[in-house]
Amino acid sequence: MKASYLAGLGRFAIRQLPDPTIVNDTDVLVKVKAVGVCGSDIHYFTAGRIGSQVVAFPFILGHESAGTVQKIGTRVTRVAVGQNVAIDPAISCGRCDQCKAGRVNTCRTLRFMGAPGQMEGCLREFVVIPEQCCYPVPDTMTCESAALAEPLAIAVYAVDRSPLTANATVAILGVGPIGLCVLHVLRTRSAGSLFVTDRIEERLAHARKLNPLWTGNPGRADIVRQVAALEPSLLDIVFECSGDPAAIVQGIDLLKPGGTLVIVGISETDAVPFPVHELRRKEITVLNIRRQAHCTQKAIDLMAQRRISLDEMITHRFSLEDTQQAFELVAQYRDGVMKAMISMD
Question: I need a labelling partner for 284 at 20 to 30 A (CA). Which of 113, 208, 233, 237 fits?
Fold first, then answer.
């Protein structure tokens, strides 16, 4: 099979590998059809690391994926040969204290596809994964849409964990793919006024299609002043989806006393300074989001029921051989890219 390897900082190479084989009786062999390029992949591409997770080159990235089942182990009952499946890239043990508490996303021995030191990713023609990671999708859903179940599941999880109420005033700071998914999910819930910011005008244009009350570019506007003019009491919840340390501080400024800052974005830096006295004076709750738990099926259902459509999020498509161009495009925010999709067909 062909695989696209991250061969060094900013450099991909195509290699031929032996086709993987089923080892365990609960394994599933999937022919990969679509892989989305995620912001965390870009961190590895440009910096070679996220925090303590450092790439040992060469390495296969990619975790937003979907494909068609080719073979199954003797004890597999969840999927059948020929079915299209969305892949949950996180493999939890099911036995540790975290898993038993329902926190599979913080499993003590979690392995994540495309994470250095854990498991190679999906930028290859075939993968073998446990059946617990395979989610059948309807025949009406494309593999490209199914691949987007992974970022949408993170958004569902973030909103589920937040203290969202019917009249809550909410901001999303950064409407790249994750932030836009959060906005989509909020549009399926009862919420109050929604505010959206991003430094890229094309992303704000995507967000405006979902009719938030207000959108703004922090590079061109005084965000806190303009939001306060519309909501003098300030906001109940801020979803920080950019990973920019400055946005975290701005999120705290946007919150009313007793508000909640939900940190979804991943920062490239190891440490982020917090205005601790402002956090204390306002008694702000800080909620960190670690990927997702038990939300993949919810994400698939939202798309299958047509309550959410992410089709317009996919702005660019590439072949496996063109992975280099896809990553360069996303890393440089060129051509209004929202989501670049690697298609194996």
Answer: 208
Please report where in the chains the tokens 């695989």 appear, as a residue. Answer: 3
Q: Per residue in 135-194, pLDDT tens?
A: 999 999 999 999 999 999 999 999 999 999 999 999 999 999 999 999 999 999 988 999
**Sequence-distant (≥ 6) Cβ neighbours of residue 317 within 8 angstroms:** 340, 341, 342, 343
Residue spans per domain, the chain: 2-148+310-343, 153-288
- 153-288 folds as Rossmann fold (3.40.50)
Q: Which amino acid is at 315?
A: T
Match domain 2-148+310-343 to its CATH number in 3.40.50.2000, 3.90.180.10, 3.40.710.10, 2.40.30.10.
3.90.180.10
- What does the pLDDT look like over 79-102, one tens digit per residue? 999 999 999 999 999 999 999 999
Per the rule left: phi > 0, alpha: psi between -120 and 50, beta: everything else, 332 is: alpha
Distance CA 121, CA 150 (A): 14
* Cβ-Cβ contacts under 8 Å for 306 (sequence gap 6 or more): none
Q: Count the Cβ atoms, other than its own, within 10 Å of residue 258.
A: 11
HSE-CB at 289 with a 13 A cutoff on CA atoms is: 32
State whether residue 153 is helix, strand or coil.
Answer: helix
Q: Is 309 helix (H, G, I), strand (E, B) or coil?
A: coil
Give the ranges where 209-320 is alpha helix by DSSP (H): 223-230, 245-254, 276-282, 296-304
Long-range contacts: 47-54, Cβ < 8 Å, 24+? 47/9, 47/268, 48/9, 49/116, 50/266, 50/268, 51/270, 53/115, 53/116, 53/117, 54/116, 54/117
